[in-house]
Amino acid sequence: MNMSRGEWCVKSTVDVEIEKAVENSKRRNCFSVVVRKGQKYVTFEFPDFGRASAYIQRELGRKNGKSVPEYYVTPEGDINKAVLKRDEESAAEGQPKKWMYKSTAIKEFRVTNNQIGLAIKNGLVEARAVKNPNYKSGPPATLVRRSDLEAHLRQVKSYPKLGESEKESRRIYSERKKSRDELQFFCPRCREEIRALRGSAMFESFFTGDAALEEAKEALMVAHYRHAHTEYEQELELLNSDRGSVNS
Predict the structure, then answer these.
(1) How many domains does the chain have?
(2) CA 180, CA 182: separation in Å to the nearest integer?
């Protein structure tokens, strides 16, 4: 296997070349580097990362940075680190990063998840799904092309900030917060305001209209005092322990 010469891609799209590089890397257990030359892409294959890196450094030195690696492809076919590796090298050379995580783009460009999602859907911003860097078993992460976002930022920001599902979630959250505010009470022994705990059955009854305000607040007061200011929990545990001894 000759692993020092590149082969021109028949189609001049990076997606086709990367697909070919991933397939070859898996089959031939080699490390590939996809390089853009003019309007086309060429793939170089090496037996390990060290040789691939050394070759690229020589190329960059010889051609004054005109031949720059687009993607590194491992034998496992994982181009997630490849894209970020390329970005790190660009940043080191003083060039802006080409790709960025969607979550980073949302913070940096001050757009919302819905706005950037619509931009991707409408073809304004190119995106790639990659392995989640924080949770291997989690959903894929999304990389977006920085230049697309910069070029269409005004249009992206004109999209609705929230989707219908997000609006509904916020509406429900606001209503539940309002109900908790109504049920809140001051405990003189704790010397602080007490709010209904998450998972409280009485809160849910009040929120759905099955319990009146005074009924729900009184029940929450009694429950708080019993659990926070009596030996209820210890007595209950002791009672359950005694029952277990009798049954055995």
Answers:
(1) 3
(2) 5
Domain stops at, among 140, 161, 182: 161
pLDDT digits (tens, 9 = 90+) for 116-142: 999 988 888 888 877 777 776 667 788
pLDDT surpasses 90 at 247: no
Query: What is the rounded CA–CA span in Å between residue 28 and residue 43?
Result: 14
Is 247 contained in some domain? no
Last residue of a domain, one of 113, 133, 161: 161
Decide if 75 contacts 30 (C-beta within 8 A): yes
Is residue 10 over pLDDT 50?
no
Token digits of residue 72: 């590194």
Contacting residues for 231 by C-beta, under 8 A, at least 6 apart: none
pTM of the model: 0.44
Q: Which residues partner with 44 through β-bridges?
A: 33
